[in-house]
TrEMBL record:
InterPro entries: FabA_FabZ (IPR013114), HotDog_dom_sf (IPR029069). Gene3D superfamilies: Hotdog Thioesterase (3.10.129.10). The keyword Lyase applies. One of its GO terms (molecular function) is lyase activity. The keyword Lyase applies. Pfam families: FabA. Keywords: Lyase. CDD domains: FabZ. This is Beta-hydroxyacyl-ACP dehydratase. It comes from marine sediment metagenome. Signal peptide: none annotated.
Length: 140
């Protein structure tokens, strides 16, 4: 069964890392994701014994959230792919079954390029920050 997020972005299990878009407009997108050990088993081998979600998965999740929010707000059409990470900073680890909240700011949005910056939070504490660019990819 297709959920709301699957209507917005092409990612599918086990590489779909957004649960819900809470709000989306031309300036800001807010979304959430909770990683679950039983559903996200492939990630558990990254930090055995610590239960940390790999940092780059959190960044991918943030970018997916940004893309889904852009689509939900009707700001761009087409298929976009992540092409550039301008800055990434990991501040703290996140563990399974914690809700991660993403607050993403749209820097530039067009039908060719999307540039965003975001912060991931667990319990209102920042755990990661990133700025990235996505470009429209036309299917052959």
């Amino acid at each position: 069964m297709e959920n709301e997020i699957e209507k917005l972005i092409p990612h599918r299990f086990p590489f779909l890392f957004v649960d819900k878009i809470i709000s989306a407009d031309e300036n800001e997108i807010i979304g959430i994701k909770s990683f679950d050990k039983s559903n996200d088993r492939m990630l558990t081998g990254s930090f055995p014994g610590f239960d940390f979600i790999p940092g780059m998965i959190i960044i991918e999740s943030m970018a997916q959230c940004g893309g889904a929010g852009v689509k939900k707000a009707g700001l761009a059409e087409g298929f976009f792919g992540l092409v550039k990470m301008e800055s990434v900073q990991f501040l703290k680890g996140a563990t399974y079954n914690e809700e991660i909240k993403y607050i993403i700011k749209n820097i530039r949005v067009s039908n060719r390029i999307i540039k965003q910056t975001g912060i991931a939070y667990v319990q209102n504490e920042p755990i990661a920050e990133a700025t990235w660019v996505c470009a429209r990819i036309d299917k052959p």
